[in-house]
Amino acid sequence: MLEILTRAGCFVAIIILGYFLKKIGFFKESDFTILSRITLRITLPAAIITSFGGKEIDRSLLILVLLAILCGFIYIGIGFFSNLHHSKEKRAFDMLNLPGYNIGTFVIPFAQSFLGPMGVIATSLFDTGNAVICLGGAYSLASMVQDGSGFSPKRLLNSLLHSVPFVCYVIMLMMNLVKIPVPDPVMSCAQIIGNANAFMAMLTIGVGFKLEANRTQLGALARILLIRYGVGAVIACLFYFCLPFAEEVRQALVILALSPVGSAVPAFTGELKGNVGLSSAINSMSIVISIVIIITLLTVML
C-alpha cells in the first residue's frame, strides 16, 4: 500500500509541478498545445507499441472496444433526455461534456505504473472505442441537436484518421491479430520513448489545468460532475462484478469508468459556440476528482 501511495503521490507531484511552472511563467498557455502534441503524437504511441508488442491479445477482449462506445452513448443519451424541456444549446452542451474519457494522458500512465500488461492492453482496447466518441462522435450528435446539421460520418472518420494514438491502436491491434511481430529495433526505441509517457502526460495535465467557471456556473458544474461520477460508479461496479474477465482487466475497467472527461471536449464545445469556461472547469475538476478516486481504488484493489 505504501508503494502504491508513493508512486501515486509522484504522479500528483508532477501535475502540481506543471501547474506551478505555468504560474511562475516557466510555461506559457500556448506551451500546453506543444506538450500535448508531444504526448499524444510521440510518447503515447510509443507506449502503445510497447504495450502491444510481444503480447498475444485474447480475442474476447475485443468486446472492450464496443463497451467503450456503449458507455459513450449512455452519457450522450442522458445528456439528451435529461434536457428535453431545456434549450437545445443546453442539451447539446450536456451531450458533449458528459461522455468520453481522458485515457491517453491520464489512465494509460496509471495503467503502465500500477496494472500488469493485460491491464494496459485492456486500457488500450477500451481507448480505441473511446476515440470514436471523443474525436467526433459526441460532437457530431451534439451539433445535430443544436443546429440540425445532421450526423457527419465523413467528419468523424477524418477526425479518427488524424488521431495518431487511434491509428497506432488500430495498426498494433491488426498486427497482433495476424501475428506480425514488431521489429526488435522498433521495440527498443519505443520502450525508451514510451517510458517518458507517464511524466509527459502528468506534466501536460498540470500545465493545462485551469478553472474558469464563475459562481453562477457552480450549480451546472456540480450537476454535470454528479451525473458523470454517479453513473460512472454504477458502470464501474457492473464492470468489476459482472464481466467474466481476469482481475487485471476488471481493475483497469473500474479505473476507466471513473476517469476524467476527455481532454478535447472544451475545444469541441468552442466549435459549437458553447460555454468554454464551464467546459474547461468541468474538465479540470474531473481530473482532481478522478485522481482522488483512482488512488483510493488502487490502494483497495491492489
TrEMBL record:
UniProtKB keywords: Cell membrane, Membrane, Transmembrane, Transmembrane helix, Transport
Highest taxon in the source lineage: Bacteria
Entry's Gene Ontology cellular component terms: plasma membrane
GO term, biological process aspect, one: transmembrane transport
Metal-binding as UniProt keyword: no
Transmembrane domains' residue ranges: 6-22, 34-54, 60-81, 101-122, 128-145, 157-178, 190-209, 221-246, 281-301
Topology of the protein relative to the lipid bilayer: Multi-pass membrane protein
Subcellular location, principal: membrane
Keyword field contains Cell wall biogenesis/degradation: no
Pfam families: Mem_trans
Family the UniProt entry places it in: Belongs to the auxin efflux carrier (TC 2.A.69) family.
Identification of the protein by name: AEC family transporter
Organism from which the protein derives: Candidatus Faecousia excrementigallinarum
